[in-house]
């Protein structure tokens, strides 16, 4: 098997997980280079890495570069992405700088791997919330056209990286010890609270925060249908890891809940957990650390024709970021595109 020189740009929560996942999946790497904002050594999952400052020259000889989009590396692909491509490197970018760029495939391998054909050396990893939803929608789309999606998310603090995790941890300690809480990462206390704001307001869709707009636009691009109507409400919740979503989907023909269960049960990358009478459904605590998308609470929507309700849960750091990026590279190897 061909061996690749691999770089990971950014060594925050996602970058560290990328390195862990690459080793777990026995990715055929002949070497690893870790680039970040400052030089140091980092121990990650039992391996020590020499971290060097990112620069254009650092991509010399690199075959595949994973941009993590963390630790101040937001926008790193704007600085170095296309310059790395010019050096012959394949860039897989977890950041959102180029997701809607028509030159750049936006890929979830289980759903739209064919978008990788004809790539120009730069591939975008979708938003974590979008990834898990479109895996479930992609399974249904093979049997009926999707007309409309309404989604409400319950997003873990790990989606904000180490600062979000640390803020929730500290607030829990402060509350237990009777101290007033402080908040910097989020606009309100996150402990024992829910915050219906992820990112900032945008003028493109008045009243919608950035995360919600990502779900609207990315879903259409990945599923290849600009006419899908999408409405999203994204909510940060005091959960450490794994995002949950309540998804309502309207199709152009009737698919019963029973039929949907069989479709989803047999779709790659999905684990069905759907026995509500026995309280069997996915929860963030139960599935954190897994790479699949978990689906349950599948039911016919009695309020609208040809509609289904789904409960979708996935580890946002693994499948929602690191694992999906590694799977893109694996799929490119499988398709002989690298």
Task: Describe the structure concisely.
This protein is α/β, with parallel strands linked by helices and 338 residues long. The chain is built from nine helices and 13 strands.
3D architecture notes:
By secondary structure, the protein is α/β, with parallel strands linked by helices. It folds into 2 domains: 4-126 and 321-334, NAD(P)-binding Rossmann-like Domain (Rossmann fold), CATH 3.40.50; 130-316, Dihydrodipicolinate Reductase, domain 2. Helix content is 30%, strand content 25%. The chain has 9 helices and 13 strands. It has helices at 13-24, 76-86, 109-112, 128-141, 162-176, 210-223, 257-265, 284-287, 318-334, and strands at 4-9, 29-36, 40-44, 47-53, 64-67, 90-93, 122-124, 146-155, 229-236, 243-251, 270-272, 293-300, 307-314. A 7-stranded mixed beta sheet has the order 3-4-2-1-5-6-7, sandwiched between helices. Strands 9-8-10-13-12-11 form a 6-stranded mixed beta sheet. Helix 3 (109-112) links the parallel strand 6 and strand 7. The relative contact order is 0.15.
């Amino acid at each position: 098997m061909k061996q690749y020189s691999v770089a990971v740009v950014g060594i925050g929560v996602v970058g560290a997980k990328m390195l862990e996942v690459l080793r777990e999946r026995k990715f055929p790497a002949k070497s690893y280079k870790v680039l970040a904002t400052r030089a140091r050594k980092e121990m990650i999952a039992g391996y020590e890495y020499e971290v060097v400052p990112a620069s254009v020259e650092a991509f010399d000889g690199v075959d595949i570069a994973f941009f993590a989009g963390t630790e101040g590396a937001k926008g790193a692909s704007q600085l170095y992405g296309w310059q790395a491509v010019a050096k012959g490197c394949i860039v897989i970018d977890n950041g959102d700088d180029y997701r809607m760029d028509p030159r750049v495939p936006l890929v979830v391998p289980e759903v739209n791997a064919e978008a990788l054909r004809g790539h120009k050396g730069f591939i975008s990893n979708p938003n974590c919330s979008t990834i898990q939803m479109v895996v479930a929608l992609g399974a249904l789309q093979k049997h009926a056209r999707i007309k409309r999606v309404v989604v409400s998310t319950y997003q873990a603090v790990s989606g904000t990286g180490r600062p979000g995790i640390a803020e929730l941890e500290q607030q829990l300690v402060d509350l237990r010890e009777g101290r007033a809480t402080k908040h910097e990462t989020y606009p309100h206390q996150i402990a024992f609270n829910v915050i219906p704001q992820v990112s900032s307001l945008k003028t493109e869709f008045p009243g919608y925060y950035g995360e919600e707009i990502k779900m609207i636009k990315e879903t259409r691009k990945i599923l290849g249908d600009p006419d899908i109507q999408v409405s999203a409400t994204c909510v940060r919740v005091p959960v450490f890891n794994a995002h949950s979503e309540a998804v309502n989907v309207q199709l152009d023909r009737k698919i019963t809940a029973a039929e949907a269960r069989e479709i989803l049960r047999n779709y790659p990358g999905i684990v069905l957990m759907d026995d509500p009478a026995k309280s069997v459904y996915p929860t963030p605590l139960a599935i954190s650390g897994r790479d699949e998308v978990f689906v349950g609470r599948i039911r016919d929507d009695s309020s609208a024709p040809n509609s289904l309700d789904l409960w979708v849960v996935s580890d946002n750091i693994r499948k929602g970021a690191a694992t999906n990026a590694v799977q893109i590279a694996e799929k490119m190897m499988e398709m002989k595109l690298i």
